[in-house]
Design a protein that fits this description.
Elements lengths: L1 H21 L2 H58 L4 H27 L5 H28 L1
Helix pairs in contact: 1-2, 2-3, 2-4, 3-4
């Protein structure tokens, strides 16, 4: 996103320079003022967009951390529940719980490792992360419902 915004601001700046250079001396000041206004508006827009993106990331991260914590709690409760079952059932479900805990841990690592790079990468990360969380939730539901 930042690279696109930089390219856009550079393009607007170059266009402003070309218009300034191509006009007669009387209009150059007027065109320069318009170009400067455009650049200032673009800077304000970039600042607003970055703020929206950061606030969206903060909310997303908080929500994702809460889902991960809820998954951990659900798995802990299920572990306690199967602790009272016979050995054969316990072994079967402990393997499933271990797999689900690993997947949940991967989600936590993925969330912690995200670096804010661009809006496109943010969108892809968000979609992939949500799909993975939905898959984990479905796996947990299937496992818990079988018991």
């Amino acid at each position: 996103m930042r690279s696109k915004l930089i390219k856009l601001s550079f393009t607007i700046f170059i266009a402003g320079c070309l218009f300034t250079a191509c006009n007669s001396g009387e209009n150059k000041g007027e065109v320069a003022d318009k170009s400067q206004d455009t650049i200032e508006e673009l800077r304000a827009w970039i600042a607003d967009t970055a703020g929206i993106h950061k606030s969206e990331w903060g909310k997303f991260k908080t929500d994702a951390e809460e889902k991960i914590r809820q998954n951990e709690d659900s798995m802990r409760v299920f572990k306690n529940k199967i602790g009272k079952a016979d050995t054969k059932i316990k072994m079967k479900y402990e393997h499933e719980i271990t797999r689900l805990e690993e997947k949940n841990s991967e989600m936590k690592t993925k969330l912690a490792g995200y670096k804010d790079e661009s809006k496109e990468k943010w969108g892809k990360f968000k979609t992939d992360f949500n799909n993975s969380m939905d898959s984990l939730s479905a796996d947990m539901k299937r496992t818990f419902d079988l018991y």
